[in-house]
Task: structure prediction
Amino acid sequence: MRIEDIMRKNVVTVSPSTSIGEALLLLRSNRIRHLPVVEHDRLVGIFSDRDLRDALPSRLLKHEDDDTILHKPVADIMHKQVITAHPLDFIEDASAQLYEHKIGSLPIIEGTRLVGMITESDLFSSLIELFGVNKPSSHIEVEVDDRVGMLAEVSQVFREAEVNVCSVVVYPGKKPPKKNLVFRVQTIDPRIVIQRLSAKGFTVVWPTEGGNPL
Result:
């Protein structure tokens, strides 16, 4: 899935001269946490509620200069080095950017023009859909040898059982060189599939009961 499939295209923006107080009202009224700062259709920075918290002396005590700060322009405290993404980037790459840089949003740039915005919440919702956990389904985890063709062999069991697979995730097993295949399947009773997997000699890691496959 690409970023253009999930990005928000109607982006609320401010200019560098917008007061911090005005920007704060926009954040609250639109229930958002980040505002791209645009000048002459070009992204020049990003402002967030965290920037405001960092700028104010204290969140608990009233200071005389608090109101002064709110009248200053966004340009005074915005982040000018903005990490961005392209509409055709994959959402997993965007997720890696957010994780690596510990940020909560990515402005989406095409050329020099701001065309959209994604947040960690958008990506989280998309990953839930990709994993299929937003639909009635079951989680089945199988430990396999790390060799070519294992995914196809396990998938054949699901095909024979006429159970549709919503998603598959592969990650290193606890006993190298093993790997774990995590399937989200469209059934609320996975016992038949689990029995078939066990009969074929596959190790079912989950679901289990007392250490044995259900």
Notes: The longest strand covers residues 138-145. The chain has a mean pLDDT of 86. Strands lie at 34-39, 42-48, 105-110, 113-119, 138-145, 165-172, 178-185, 203-206, 208-209, 212-213.
